[in-house]
Specification:
The complex is a heterodimer of chains A (about 120) and B (about 120). With about 120 residues, chain A is mainly β. Chain A is built from no helices and twelve strands. Chain B is mainly β and about 120 residues long. In chain B, strand 5 and strand 6 form a beta hairpin. Chain B is globular. The chains are: A mainly beta (about 120), B mainly beta (about 120). Chains A and B meet through strand 11 of A and strand 5, strand 9 and strand 10 of B.
């Protein structure tokens, strides 16, 4: 069963507009963490934002915010005032414990293209 | 943030040869390192988890005899693709975590692009 679901394979957004990238997750573990990473064409994984399952407030990091709706098991990434440099693949990931190790499971990603 | 390096950044090899990829944590000690594989236009798939000084834990479907992982020190893990074939061509990414003391965050290396001819 898919543990992390990103339903938007691709998105096109006008520069300076806000954009929301969807992510839903499935876990029975009460303690987990949710991450968003950006992967430009060069390939490196750039950490954007983190939300812990027990965090009361939505995480924010500069232009990035995470809309965490625990009951709906969703963790959408919101990018405000998009810039051309935001064009990249975006991956949602969940950290959970498995056989004593903590591991990350990634979604299939969303390719975001910012249009000038 | 913490820095993780990978070497080489890209490699081209002939079918049947073995290729070693290094992953180093440059400014922290990594209790655990992870190896991922990413095929073009696909997501990262965890291959194995390695703890320093112990055998790696491989994910289902990953051949441990083909993808040899060694985590001999707290700053270095290596992935050796043995008898590589064209279907092993992929982008290999490692990550490292300092463990509970460092919040268990994973820091990613820049990746190694392997092309097997």
């Amino acid at each position: 069963a898919q543990k992390i679901t990103q339903t938007q394979p691709g998105m096109f957004v006008q520069e300076k507009e806000a954009v929301t990238l969807d992510c839903t997750y499935d876990t029975s573990d009460p303690s987990y963490g949710l991450f968003w990473y950006k992967q430009p064409s060069s390939g490196e994984m750039i950490f954007l934002i983190y939300q812990g399952s027990y965090d009361q407030q939505n995480a924010t990091e500069g232009r990035y915010s995470l809309n965490f709706q625990k009951a709906r098991k969703s963790a959408n990434l919101v990018i405000s005032a998009s810039q051309l440099g935001d064009s990249a693949m975006y991956f949602c990931a969940m950290r959970e414990r498995s056989f004593g190790n903590e591991k990350l499971t990634f979604g299939t990603g969303t390719r975001l293209t910012i249009i000038p | 943030g913490a820095v993780v390096s990978q070497h080489p950044s890209w490699v081209i090899c002939k079918s049947g040869t073995s290729v070693k990829i290094e992953c180093r944590s440059l400014d922290f000690q990594a209790t655990t390192m992870f190896w991922y594989r990413q095929f073009p236009k696909q997501s990262l798939m965890l291959m194995a988890t390695s703890n320093e000084g112990s055998k790696a834990t491989y994910e289902q479907g990953v051949e441990k005899d083909k993808f040899l992982i060694n985590h001999a020190s707290l700053t270095l893990s290596t992935l050796t693709v043995t008898s590589a074939h064209p279907e092993d061509s992929s982008f290999y990414i490692c990550s490292a975590t300092p463990g509970l003391a460092g919040g268990n965050e994973q820091f990613f290396g820049p990746g190694t692009r392997l092309t097997v001819l």
